[in-house]
Amino acid sequence: MTEEPGFDDSTPAADPPPRPRRKGIYVLPNLFTMAALFGGFYAVVMAMNGRFELAAIGVFSAMVLDSLDGRVARMTNTQSAFGEQMDSLSDMVSFGAAPALILYEWALKGLGKLGWIAAFVYCASAALRLARFNTNIGIVDKRFFQGLPSPAAAAIVIGLVWVMDDAGFRNAHQIDWLAWTAFAITLLSGLTMVTNVPFYSFKDVGLKKSVPFIVIVAIALAIAVVNIHPPIVLFAIFCVYGLSGYAMYIYRKSKGKPVSVIAVSTDEPDEAGLHR
After folding, report:
1. Domains in the chain, start-ordered, CATH in brackets?
2. 22 or 72, higher pLDDT
């Protein structure tokens, strides 16, 4: 039997699927994030060498850089899932582990087990706060933070170190009243991070909008005030911010207003306790 002309019973081989294109990493926003991470690492190294003033400057520098990376990513349209994860890990180091280790080395080690327990509670609270923030992004009112932000908590505890070191208090772990003060502030700052107390986020302040001339004058005056004595002024500012959430909580409770910052209810059973 002869085969018909032009007939081929063999099936052509299928073309291999195209290889997925590798996703690159945006350099500019991650450069700020990496610099913030270095600030936290630098702070720990300085604390290990007894240079607590430089350790405080490292943490506060990390705060400034951390506030810029997200804004830079949005302004340049370079947001990415990698950048979000990198930012969270950097925050955990700079505002969770670093402040806990610095406080322990500065004062808490004089309290024995209670000292490292307080440092661990702070570190664990920072981790829990960051995890909750990442999972609740879509349901939390953007005008408020749910609990004290980890950079602000770090500014409070590290601000105490900076103020006291600047005042000449050396070997704080050997000064009982100072060690117990550090213990109380570390615990309070850590636990405030995992509460549902609302803290104003300033995210509704538009940097691209025009403002009256007096606003620029006020900013210039604020910068001048900070430069009078940075340790005391910055510590005072963040202490006031740390108390503002409790003040807002009490005010809303007294007026019968909802105090939860959860903006959208969900049907997930695990989220039920967040909507009170």
Report:
1. 27-263 (1.20.120.1760)
2. 72
